[in-house]
């Protein structure tokens, strides 16, 4: 059914465009993933773009929900949202912010900056309820310029080239938003088809740039927003790669940021949101550029999305800490020797035999698990991962056999759904029902990839099951618990998921929890401190173990922004 066209670029047009873009990327995702060959066939550009736009859609819908607007309500005379609805500035601001905080991979990060560039122009129009063709032309131009400025080392033949071509074509268009959108789309499509002539690796593989294909898809949705009909499908060459062979994980480094024919390269991808001032971010750019490559820093007004590939992941995070407050930190290990190698110089990398995929609650634990060889998915406090994100993590591991550690009882069904999806893609998956990250640490400690798969899974399951787990946290509200009624602000000690202690002092509650756990015996205590927990808590617990439990060892880790003040494991 044809889409009802929007006459102006207003809040409803923003909402329509976002929804159409998400549906279009959903249809094109696998095709875009398949042609992601530059400089490594990592095969998830389409998925990253989809997840980025999905976050933008959620933000826009939240704005409309807050204004309690009927999706079809308009003022017939003005063709704009009713007085009770969001303004154009509200809608584009939400779109840009949602894309920024949800950006995935290089292409998703750059798309977020493109949307932010548009929003900067459109929000400057003050209280105007809509813009017309000239305003859209200016927005597209600023989008292309700001995206190029966000990339440390731009390379032609990428999504940046496609964005610039769209802006150039739009500037030559006369008329309303429909004409401008159509011109931008046609210019972008022509530039996309030309990308193999600008990047030899694309020409050798017989494909166009994957990120550019995604942008053309988004611009096609913009045309549909204003005309009611989508342009015909974009005819592009397909990559000569085996199904599933390229779908191993997040884009290793798209053409926007990498050396064309470089061998070797950093082992880690580091991504985080950062709250920082402009001057601090300028220094951060210089430092990260010296540390690694594929650097993209987007955002502004105190909030940034940072993406870089480095060998020293800790140094990249430390640089963010010095610049401001980093959070939602994701660290991905790319494996040995597969980074920054062009497809023409070596075939797509073979799957490893076995990998461990783990959900972890904090960036400190993410680094710990990554150093141990696991592929990690960071679960932010209050934001559990969806099954699709777990499937992506399994793909990123690029292994024939995967051991999945959800590390959260509430993720059991989500992890089971992800495991089932991965099995349909030919991956042998074993789900170990770990309920806490400390159980995952215990399982990972006995992991031996050289063993038979079943034997390895049994050993890891046994180690996790033999580890009692606890956490110390702060109550957010008054509620009934198994230990009585708690008030907001009370310190809670949970053992194996149930509230066992309610108190006012973190150290005292933690000590009581530890005593109760060790009363049943144990050989090793694992303590994981959250970023809000004082070091004195760990010092007190270590001293208590030394004095009262002579045969028990203690290890302490910093978990970062993990939600709980303290995680405790006893095995």
Topology, element by element:
Blueprint: E1 9-10, H1 11-34, H2 45-67, H3 88-102, H4 105-123, E2 130-131, H5 133-150, H6 159-171, H7 177-194, H8 200-205, H9 210-227, E3 268-276, H10 278-291, E4 292-300, E5 303-310, H11 313-323, E6 324-333, E7 352-360, H12 363-371, E8 375-378, H13 387-397, E9 399-405, H14 412-424, E10 428-431, H15 437-445, H16 453-465, E11 468-474, E12 479-481, E13 484-486, E14 491-495, E15 498-503, H17 506-518, E16 524-530, H18 535-548, E17 553-560, E18 566-570
Parallel strand pairs: 7-8, 7-9, 9-10, 16-17
Antiparallel strand pairs: 1-2, 3-5, 3-6, 4-5, 11-14, 11-18, 12-13, 14-15, 16-18
Write up this protein.
- 46% of the residues lie in helices and 19% in strands.
- It is α+β, with helices and mostly antiparallel strands and 571 residues long.
- The chain has a 6-stranded mixed sheet, with helices on both faces. A 4-stranded antiparallel sheet has the order 4-5-3-6, with helices on both faces. It has a 4-stranded parallel sheet with strand order 8-7-9-10, with helices on both faces.
- Helix 14 links the parallel strand 9 and strand 10 (428-431).
- Helix 7 (177-194) runs antiparallel to helix 9.
- It is globular and about 80 Å long.
- The N and C termini lie far apart (60 Å).
- 58% of the residues are buried.
- The model is unreliable at 69-82, 239-263 and 336-348 (pLDDT under 50).
């Amino acid at each position: 059914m044809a889409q009802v066209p929007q006459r102006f670029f207003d809040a409803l047009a923003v909402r329509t465009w976002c929804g159409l873009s998400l549906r279009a990327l959903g249809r094109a995702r696998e095709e875009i993933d398949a042609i992601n060959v530059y400089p490594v066939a990592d095969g998830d550009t389409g998925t990253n773009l989809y997840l980025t736009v999905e976050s933008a859609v959620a933000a826009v819908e939240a704005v409309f929900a807050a204004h309690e607007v009927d999706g079809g309500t308009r003022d017939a005379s003005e063709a704009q949202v009713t007085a009770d609805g969001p303004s154009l500035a509200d809608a584009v601001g939400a779109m840009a912010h949602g894309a920024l905080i949800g950006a995935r991979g290089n292409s998703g990060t750059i798309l977020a900056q493109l949307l932010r560039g548009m929003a900067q122009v459109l929000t400057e129009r003050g209280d105007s309820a809509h813009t017309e063709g000239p305003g859209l032309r200016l927005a597209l131009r600023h989008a292309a310029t700001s995206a190029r400025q966000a990339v440390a080392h731009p390379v032609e033949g990428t999504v940046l080239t496609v964005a610039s071509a769209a802006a150039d074509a739009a500037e030559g268009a006369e008329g309303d938003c429909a004409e401008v959108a159509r011109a931008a789309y046609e210019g972008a499509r022509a530039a996309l088809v030309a990308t193999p002539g600008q990047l030899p690796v694309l020409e050798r593989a017989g494909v166009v740039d994957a990120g550019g294909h995604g942008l053309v898809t988004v611009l096609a949705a913009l045309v549909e927003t204003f005309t009611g009909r989508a342009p015909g499908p974009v005819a592009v060459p397909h990559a000569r790669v085996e199904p599933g062979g390229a779908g191993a994980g997040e884009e290793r480094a798209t053409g926007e940021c990498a050396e064309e024919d470089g061998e070797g390269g950093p082992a880690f991808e580091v991504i985080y949101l950062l709250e920082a001032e402009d001057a601090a971010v300028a220094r951060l750019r210089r430092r990260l550029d010296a540390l690694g490559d594929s650097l993209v820093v987007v955002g502004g007004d105190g909030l940034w999305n940072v993406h870089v590939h480095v060998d020293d992941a800790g140094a990249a995070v430390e640089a963010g800490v010095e610049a401001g407050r980093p959070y939602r930190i994701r660290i991905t290990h790319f494996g040995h020797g597969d980074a920054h190698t062009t497809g023409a110089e070596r075939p797509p990398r073979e799957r490893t035999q076995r990998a461990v995929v783990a959900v972890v609650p904090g960036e400190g634990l993410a680094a710990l698990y990554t150093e141990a060889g696991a592929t990690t998915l960071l679960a932010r406090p209050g934001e559990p991962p969806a099954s699709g994100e777990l499937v992506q993590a399994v793909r990123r591991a690029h292994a024939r056999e995967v051991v999945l550690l959800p590390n959260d009882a509430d993720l059991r069904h989500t992890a089971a759904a992800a495991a089932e999806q991965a099995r349909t893609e030919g991956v042998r998956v074993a789900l170990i029902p770990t309920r806490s990250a400390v159980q995952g640490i215990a399982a990972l400690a006995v992991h031996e990839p050289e063993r038979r798969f079943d034997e390895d899974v049994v050993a890891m399951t046994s180690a996790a099951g033999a580890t009692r787990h606890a956490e110390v946290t702060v109550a957010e509200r008054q509620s009934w618990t198994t230990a009585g009624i708690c008030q907001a602000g009370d310190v809670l000690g949970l053992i194996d998921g149930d509230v066992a202690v309610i108190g006012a002092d973190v150290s005292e509650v933690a000590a009581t929890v530890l005593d109760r756990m060790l009363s049943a015996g144990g050989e090793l205590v694992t303590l994981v401190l959250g970023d809000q927990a004082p070091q004195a808590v760990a010092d007190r617990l270590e001293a208590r173990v030394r004095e009262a439990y002579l045969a028990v060892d203690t290890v302490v880790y910093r978990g970062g922004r993990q939600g709980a003040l303290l995680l405790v494991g006893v095995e």
